[in-house]
Structures are given as structure tokens and as C-alpha cells.
């Protein structure tokens, strides 16, 4: 029994020396430790603690500025570092993790602020009050939310020097070294960044840029993170390595930001989005009924983030403008004078649930999509963007007697956002009776928690 305290002391001593070693590593080396598959838990824990020590003030200051409310800021702080743990394997930063962490902290915090605002509105509506109940953020917090939002939207070459110099308090030389830029380049971009941020903020109600640095620097570079909060954030490595979810509020914020990152990579014109989806390895449940309804198997799915924070509006490729166009630009050889409903491709006219709905009953057993024309029986392309965003299929896909409505039997989970393509540029088995592919359509909805 006498050896037990010695074992504990030896373990603590090992962590002490390990912490010293980790603190001397670059951000890139620490990220590599976090990303190491099957790595030792203590090693991952030490790497995360070193990052917390190095960048915790930046993240905590950002969360406090945007949210004001301490419990919400604590959840956002922990969610930021949980996002880091889950994204470590794909991060491309070199020795400048601070700007990336600020961007994540800003997005997580603004997400938490949005959730809190919806909760207040729901409580106010339930109580029959015209406005939201007490506890609204102070006007200063609203201004800071705008500031961090505009800072997040700056191009990287302007955002990163602002974060390093004004939020983390680095000198021009230190920031240039972290970004691997010449000092002159850093100084020029920093000056341009201040001017750009000032003009954007003035459009949002800020009167001058004189208070921007004064507001940012003291809070974000000198804020002391509560020790118990550091311990809780460091403790996330245990659940992360065990594949277990974090506490509900933190897990929801984390998954939300992860899917936001996915959508941000895919946003843009519909044609560009189709290209991104195809390159990312979007798999298809594109099937053609054979005999008793046996469907062809899907391609392997590309794993992705597990949930969506914000509903994405349904999308379809841009159609040509109604003005005169070259004959070759018209689909299916239809001339300007011969455009008819019968000669146009089928389009989605109705879905159950409706695209963009945020409170779908998870007990819903069927997803239905109705087209503008009669479709070929046994042909469909239900296409995944990522495995977690596609529902579990529980039965045979089929058309109703109207030959326009395709039914996908599913099992939905509470509190999850689903995203499904109906046809893409690559998978086009939703076809009308004349074998013309339907216009692609993105169906996105969220189930109630």
C-alpha cells in the first residue's frame, strides 16, 4: 500500500516535466500531438494545456466580450477547444493558431448568443410578454458582438495580423515571424486591416476607429482565465479520446460550428457548390428499382461533422435570365419561342418536411418530395453531403400513385440538422417521363431536440 502515493507523485512529476516540454513547442507541433491517432491521453492533455496557457486569454476574452454572461461564455470557451480537438487533424496553420482560435471562438460565441436570444423570445412568447424578459445583453455587448463578427469576416491576410497584434498584443516582428511574412508586409496589411475594419464598423454604427484597439486589446490579451475553467476545458480530452459526447450545451455548440465550417466551404453559386460536393466525395443513394425494388448500393460516405447550427435555405442551380440567349444555351434544345411547362425539366414544388424548417418532429417516418411533373417510377437520386447529415433509411423508396411524389422512409434523431441533395450534376436519376433530369434541389431541415 505504501507504493501508491509514490506512484501518484511519479505521475504528477511526469506531467510537470511533460508540461515544460510541451510549452516549448510551436503551435504546429502541439496541433500534431492533438491530431496523433491513438496517442497517449496524457500527451494529448499536455498539448491542450499548453495551448490553453498560450491562447486561453484570447479565447476567454472573445467569449466574454461577445456574450457577457459568464456561464454562456464558459460553455463557448470549452466548445472552442473541443472544436480544436476534433479539427486538429485537418488544420493547416503553421505557428499562428491564435487567429484560427479567435475565429472559432467568435463563431461559437455568436452561435451561443443566437441560441440565447431564441430562448428568451420563446420564454417571452410563452409568458405572453411583448418583449424578451430580463437579462438582455448590455448595449456594449451588442457592439462587441458586431465588432468580432466584422473581424471574423475580414480576409485572412487582414484578419490574422489584427488578431495577433491587437488581440494577443504581439509586436510587429513577433506577428510577422508567426505568419512567416516580411515585417514590411505585416505592417502594410495591418494598416490596411485597421482601415477596412473601421469602414465596416462605421457602416454598422461605430463612430470612429479610435476605440477599436482600446476595446480589444485590454480584454483579450490580458484576461485571466479562471483555473477551474482551464481544468474543465483540459478535461475534454478524456471524452474526446473515448469518443463520448461532451455536456449537452457544449456538444451542441461544437457540432454547430463544425457544420458551419462545412457550409462555409461549400457556399457560393450553385454550380460551384456542386463541384465542391463532388470533389469532397459526396456519396449517392442513387438507385434504380430492380424487380422487387432492390436498390443499388451507395458509394462510400465521406465522414463529416455531425450536426448543423444554422439552417441553410434550399438551393437549386441558377437558371438563365429570361432575356434573349443563344440557342445552345437553352436546355433540351428548347428555343425562346417554344418554352412550355411540358418542355421544361421537372422541379421540386413541395417537400415534407418543408425546406428550412427548424422544428420538425423527430417521430416523422417519411420524407416526401413532390415534383412539378410525373416522374419515371423506380428512378431517384437521394444524395448525401456527409454521413451524419443524412437520415437512416428504414424501408423501400417508392413513388406514390400520383407518380410525382417520391417517399424516403427514415428514422430521424432529435436535435439534428439533415441535408439531402435531390439530384446533383453527377447523380441525375430523378427524371421525368421523357427522361430529362430534374433540377437539383437541396433539402435542409432540423428536428426538435
Primary descriptors:
449 residues; Immunoglobulin-like; five-stranded antiparallel beta sheet; four-stranded antiparallel beta sheet; disordered N terminus; RNA_pol_sigma_r2; RNA_pol_sigma70_r2; signal
Structure summarized in a few sentences:
This protein is α+β, with helices and mostly antiparallel strands and 449 residues long. It has helices at 3-23, 27-35, 41-67, 70-87, 97-126, 139-153, 156-167, 172-179, 183-203, 210-222, 227-234, 236-242, 248-266, 270-279, and strands at 284-288, 348-352, 366-371, 379-384, 392-393, 398-399, 405-411, 417-422, 441-446.
Give the total of beta strands: 9
Helix content, binned percent: 40-55%
Sequence stretches where pLDDT stays below 50 over 5 or more residues: 1-21, 131-139, 268-338
Helix and strand string, N-terminal first?
A: HHHHHHHHHHHHHHEEEEEEEEE
Shape: elongated
How would you classify the quaternary structure?
A: single chain
- What do the pLDDT scores average to? 75
Percent strand? 5-15%
Number of helices: 14
- Class inferred from helices and paired strands: alpha+beta
Radius of gyration: 26 Å
Amino acid at each position: 500500500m505504501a507504493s501508491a502515493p509514490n506512484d501518484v507523485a511519479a505521475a504528477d512529476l511526469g506531467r510537470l516535466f511533460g508540461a515544460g516540454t510541451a510549452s516549448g513547442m510551436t503551435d504546429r507541433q502541439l496541433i500534431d500531438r492533438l491530431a496523433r491517432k491513438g496517442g497517449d491521453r496524457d500527451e494529448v492533455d499536455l498539448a491542450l494545456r499548453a495551448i490553453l496557457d498560450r491562447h486561453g486569454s484570447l479565447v476567454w476574452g472573445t467569449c466574454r466580450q461577445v456574450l457577457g454572461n459568464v456561464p454562456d461564455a464558459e460553455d463557448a470557451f470549452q466548445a472552442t477547444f473541443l472544436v480544436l480537438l476534433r479539427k486538429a487533424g485537418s488544420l493547416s496553420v503553421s505557428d499562428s493558431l491564435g487567429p484560427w482560435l479567435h475565429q472559432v471562438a467568435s463563431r461559437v460565441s455568436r452561435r451561443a448568443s443566437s441560441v440565447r436570444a431564441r430562448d428568451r423570445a420563446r420564454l417571452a412568447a410563452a409568458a405572453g410578454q411583448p418583449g424578451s424578459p430580463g437579462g438582455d445583453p448590455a448595449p456594449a455587448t451588442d457592439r462587441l458582438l458586431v465588432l468580432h463578427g466584422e473581424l471574423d469576416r475580414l480576409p485572412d491576410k487582414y484578419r490574422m495580423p489584427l488578431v495577433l497584434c491587437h488581440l494577443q498584443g504581439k509586436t510587429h516582428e513577433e506577428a510577422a515571424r508567426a505568419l512567416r511574412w516580411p515585417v514590411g508586409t505585416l505592417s502594410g496589411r495591418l494598416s490596411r486591416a485597421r482601415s477596412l475594419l473601421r469602414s465596416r464598423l462605421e457602416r454598422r454604427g461605430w463612430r470612429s476607429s479610435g476605440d477599436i484597439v482600446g476595446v480589444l486589446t485590454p480584454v483579450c490579451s490580458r484576461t485571466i482565465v479562471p483555473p477551474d475553467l482551464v481544468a474543465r476545458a483540459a478535461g475534454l480530452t478524456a471524452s474526446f479520446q473515448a469518443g463520448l459526447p461532451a455536456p449537452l450545451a457544449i456538444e451542441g455548440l461544437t457540432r454547430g460550428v463544425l457544420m458551419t465550417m462545412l457550409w462555409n466551404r461549400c457556399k457560393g453559386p450553385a454550380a460551384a457548390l456542386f463541384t465542391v460536393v463532388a470533389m469532397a466525395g459526396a456519396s449517392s443513394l442513387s438507385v434504380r428499382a430492380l424487380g422487387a425494388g432492390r436498390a443499388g448500393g451507395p458509394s462510400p460516405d465521406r465522414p463529416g461533422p455531425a450536426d448543423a447550427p444554422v439552417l441553410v435555405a434550399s438551393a437549386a442551380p441558377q437558371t438563365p435570365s429570361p432575356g434573349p440567349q443563344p440557342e445552345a444555351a437553352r436546355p433540351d434544345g428548347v428555343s425562346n419561342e417554344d418554352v412550355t411547362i411540358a418542355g421544361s425539366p421537372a422541379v421540386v414544388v413541395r417537400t415534407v418536411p418543408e425546406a428550412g424548417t427548424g422544428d420538425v418532429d423527430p417521430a416523422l417516418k417519411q420524407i416526401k418530395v413532390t415534383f412539378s411533373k410525373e416522374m419515371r417510377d423506380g428512378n431517384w437520386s437521394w444524395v448525401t453531403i456527409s454521413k451524419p447529415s443524412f437520415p437512416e433509411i428504414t424501408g423501400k423508396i417508392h413513388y406514390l400513385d400520383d407518380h410525382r411524389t417520391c417517399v424516403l422512409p427514415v428514422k430521424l434523431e432529435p436535435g439534428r440538422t439533415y441535408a439531402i441533395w435531390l439530384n446533383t450534376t453527377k447523380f441525375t436519376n430523378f427524371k421525368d417521363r421523357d427522361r430529362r433530369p430534374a433540377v437539383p434541389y437541396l433539402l435542409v431541415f432540423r428536428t426538435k431536440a
